[in-house]
Amino acid sequence: MSSGERLVPAAEPTSILSKAFDLMRAFNSDSRVMTLSELSRASGLPKSTVHRLIARLVDLGAVEQHRTGYVVSVDLLQLAANTPAGGMRDLALPALAALHRWSGHGVQLAVLRQFDVVYLEKIATHRMPAPRAGIGARLPANCTALGKVLLAWENIEDLDSFLPRPMSTMTTHSTTDVDELLLELQKIRSAGIAREREESQLGLACVAVPIVIHDFAVGAVAVSHSADVDVGSGVDNALRATAAQIARLCRDDLSRGKFRYFPREL
Fold first, then answer.
1. Global pTM value
2. How far is residue 262's CA from residue 254's CA, in Å, rounded to a whole number?
């Protein structure tokens, strides 16, 4: 090697833990039962690696055998339920159910993770298009009313610096220009409510409000409906009342020695 050359560290090999997570993420709401071959294709891992990992995941209780295939173990439900977000979902369920009964439309609860919304709860109806995302799924925040109302409670200047350019798109109606989105977020922050029509899924519209505690949006609740349906202004007031009720329940929970659950320092 000449004196002008430098040693470049070799890329760190993918760990067995990373491969195991890649394998677990191959399961989805459309493929809840998968064979070894299907898992190999979906994860991009060699079939021999999948066979070895699956055997270990079964031993650990993370995966279960199901007929000729495999499924995510129900034991993992307990782990997911133990998150602070899972606790908020538990507190919110009665209010979400009441909103669903009153409106007759779909109801969702979600949190923001980086630039995605993660769905904690979804109550659907047969009168609206089948939703793309199930519980635990992520969608680009810029394409959803839930995501926009959560982004609107972030620091707008920070978003200008950190939002990906271009942003993700889900339909031809999705907002992908950062400057356009930031202007929309300012209006949403002022109004306290966000709307989207066919930006995440054709035929679907949504209105969302934040669940605010100490001026921080810990989550958001939404009503979704067919894009050709006018839900009226009453839904706005019902959503605000539901979000305020959930916020009160969460504040009461925090006051009972669970303040460390809050997602930021005050």
1. 0.85
2. 8
